[in-house]
Design goal:
Blueprint lengths: L1 E5 L3 H12 L3 E6 L10 E4 L1 H9 L3 H7 L1 E3 L1 E6 L5 E5 L9 E5 H15 L2 E4 L12 E4 L6 H5 L7 E12 L10 E7 L2 E8 L3 E9 L9 H9 L11 E2 L3 E5 L11 E3 L2 H4 L8 H18 L3 H20 L20
Parallel strand pairs: 1-2, 1-9, 2-8, 5-11, 9-16
Antiparallel strand pairs: 3-7, 4-7, 5-6, 10-13, 10-14, 10-15, 11-12, 12-13
Amino acid sequence: MDVSIIGGGIAGATAAAAAGVIGAVTQVYEATEQTIEHRGWVTLAPSAMTALDQVGVGERVRAVGFPVVEVRMVDTVTGQQRRLSRYEPGHRWPSTHVWRRDLLSALHDRLDHLGVRRHFGTAVAADQLTADVIVGADGAHSPTRRLLGNPLMPTFTGEVICYGHHPACAPGLARHVLHFWGHPDGVVAYIGDDRDGSFWFSRYHTQSPSDIVDLTRLLRPLRQTPAAAVVDNAEISDQVALYELDPRGIWHSADTVLIGDAAHAVSASAARGAASAIEDAVVLARCLQGSDTIVSALDSYTAIRRPLAWATYRPDPGQRPPCPSPDQLILAH
């Protein structure tokens, strides 16, 4: 089986690794020049760590990242508090927090080992490729999605976000615990690790994606939490407007399929974007491995993944994000 993948980010690189593991002859086309120096970080769900084990990079990602064992949420208006474990039934590992650059480096090193050919600085369209399977991992504004006849585009969620990193941990806050503080204008969050320091964000409601919130106002809710000590002298990102994509449109044709943000981009507030992309990639490979035809494989992939994408896009109030079962992520090596 020949597999061509459009996009070399987290979704595309994981898809290439998974395809390589099941024995497919795989090529990746990435429009940008080769680089893994992406800023930012991700928190990967336990199910995503199970998926990364299947493609041979889980151990390395856990080594360069750190575990997230619990979530603690505080409503600063009502004082209500809630705690959630970051372990999931059937999955061995908890959530893992990792720099995007380290995750991408692990994935691309694995592609080197598997002999996957990558074409950087090469923009291609799905209708220019002749592989048995073409995977559109080309992001929220996916040209592949449009070629499939899916007209949906990402919509603004009504929030902007900025991120911060400080080399030290906030005193008095438990390590490896993701702390959230909800306030009338949004949410702030913090997590810390003795080696990697503090990571925080401030998410703020706005009327328009072009609105720029004054930095003092954006950071004020964070300064009113125990994480205040790591706000000053932190490296702070630019503000970014948040978007999401309705997952109900067309996901595949007879030989072309969407994964990750190309199929179901979610807001950062869902904390599921990278994890969902990784899971998509491995579930797709499993379906290709276990189906008699490519069409039936793509049908099976969509039937498994779309309900989870919808539940993340429009979750039931008070419910934690859904995740696939371990058996949906196991590849025959």
